[in-house]
Design brief:
single chain; 290 residues; four-stranded antiparallel sheet; 1 helix; 24 strands
């Protein structure tokens, strides 16, 4: 592995949901607290930002544009015009939750989590939303949904409730989207920090960002830790494979709730970091919602 680099200098309060577009050769991510969607094209250095009127809680690739996850809703977003179109409301606002963590499964369903903001109550769920906008709950009674990823064959789904400090694995039926046979993949407190966003490589090892632990952890399919990579920030939030060969890990980071004293020794906090690795990642799945 190479040294950690700062790929995109920034001041994200809560950078999250990185996803690499193979078609565009560009990285997309959000800053939840700044209501911002961001795009970076490494080959040209071009960077663009879009600011919205609501929290931007996640982003996914679609066949035509993007799916933007806001506080309660899913929006179709056209980057060429900046136009949005409301697709559906995931949860009723009366539940006082917001959305968090969105990934696309191997057949194009959007899997999206909900939570009370800042994890203030155990009121969250994880939903599967199919191309016809049919929605069903997969998991309930979650405080902070995170770490969603699928094995290379699509038959295992990983997810975390960050508050429980574990990463769970389930048998996954791509045809139905059903979860069965849940078990612990990574136990609590065997790695530094808390489990946040994950990215899967072609060998079936998952890279997990560890806020408060200041590192990435690579976990094999049997739960063994292959390596721990220290980062120059205390709160990495998520990672995604990118670059022409999908061997660059892009890592979003956060600054929220960190005091000036805590931020002083980590000037890269709020930036997007990068790390070259040996095994390429899986390309991001494309959402079938339209």
């Amino acid at each position: 592995m190479s040294a950690i680099e700062r790929a995109v200098a920034g001041q994200d309060l809560l950078g999250e949901s990185p996803v690499w577009s193979v078609r565009e050769q560009a990285l997309w991510w959000v800053d939840i607290r700044s209501n911002a969607l961001r795009r970076f094209e490494p080959a040209t250095g071009d960077r663009r930002d879009w600011i919205f009127d609501d929290l931007c809680c996640g982003v996914a690739l679609a066949h035509d544009g993007l799916i933007l996850v806001t506080r309660h809703d899913l929006l179709a977003f056209d980057p060429s015009t900046g136009a949005t179109r409301r697709l559906l409301q995931v949860e009723d606002p009366s539940l006082d939750n917001r959305l968090n963590e969105a990934r696309v499964d191997p057949v194009g369903r959007l899997i999206v989590g909900s939570m009370r903001d800042y994890g203030a109550a155990v009121t969250g769920s994880i939903y599967a939303i199919s191309a016809d906008r049919h929605q069903r709950r997969l998991l309930a009674d979650i405080r902070i949904p995170n770490a969603m990823a699928w094995s290379p064959d699509g038959l295992t789904f990983q997810v975390s409730d960050t508050d429980e400090r574990t990463i769970r694995a389930y048998d996954y039926d791509p045809g139905s989207g059903d979860l069965t046979a849940g078990r612990t993949l990574l136990a609590a407190d065997v790695a530094p920090g808390l489990p946040d966003g994950s990215a899967m490589d072609v060998e079936g090892a998952v890279w997990n960002a560890r806020p408060t632990g200041g590192c990435l952890v690579q976990v094999l399919g049997d739960g063994r830790i292959r390596c721990v990579v220290a980062l120059p920030v205390s709160h990495p939030t998520a990672c995604a494979f990118g670059g022409p060969d999908l061997k660059t890990l892009y890592i979003t980071t956060a600054r929220q709730r960190l005091t000036p004293e805590a931020l002083a020794p980590q000037p890269w906090a709020g930036s997007v970091l990068s790390l070259r690795v040996d095994a390429p990642g899986l390309p991001a799945n494309i959402c079938g919602l339209a």
